[in-house]
Amino acid sequence: MNGCGQTFEFMNRMEILVARENRITWEEGIPHADRKTDFVIRGLIVPLTGKELLLVPEGDRYRYNTWVYTQGELRDNDLVIYAGQPFEVQVVTDWGSYRQARAMRLDVGVVGES
Questions:
Q1: Side-chain-side CA neighbours of residue 102 (13 Å)
Q2: Among 93, 2, 85, 98, which Cα is nearest to 44's?
Q3: Alpha-carbon distance 81 to 112, whole Å?
Q4: Residue 27 — very low, low, confident or very high, per pLDDT cuts 50/70/90?
């Protein structure tokens, strides 16, 4: 197996739940979101380094930020559920054979808590 194949095998180690709000429609001046779509991608989640965190907008640095590497589809504003916590995708870069996304944890509690 070549180095590229090994990289993709490593990147596809974990299943990641993604929640996506579909398009917004307007009825009588009131916005309504179509139903949410949930799906699973395979990828890798890695925390940002200290130097990378300096590139994050100042108001977001205190939140937990991660990189998500995947060959699956990710878009800005998707929610990635990792360790029971929601992370909002901020920026997605398509590198051709994979995507790199920066995701920031939303401080709303643990998903699935009663």
A1: 14
A2: 98
A3: 11
A4: confident
Give residue 51's pLDDT.
Answer: 92
Q: CA nearest 89: which of 26, 37, 45?
A: 45
In the three-class reduction of DSSP (H, G, I as helix; E, B as strand; rest coil), residue 70 is classed as strand
pTM > 0.70: yes or no: yes
Tell me if residue 63 falls in helix, strand or coil. coil
Helices (H), 15-97: 50-53
Cα 55 to Cα 49, 58, 65, 96, 107, distances in angstroms: 10, 8, 11, 23, 21
User: Could you read off the pLDDT of 91-100 as tens digits, one per residue?
Assistant: 999 998 889 9
Instruction: Residue 102: name the closest of 63, 24, 15, 11 by CA.
Output: 63
Closest CA to 75 of 108, 53, 113, 101: 101
CB 28 within 8 A of CB 3: no
Ranges of H-type helices in the chain: 3-11, 50-53
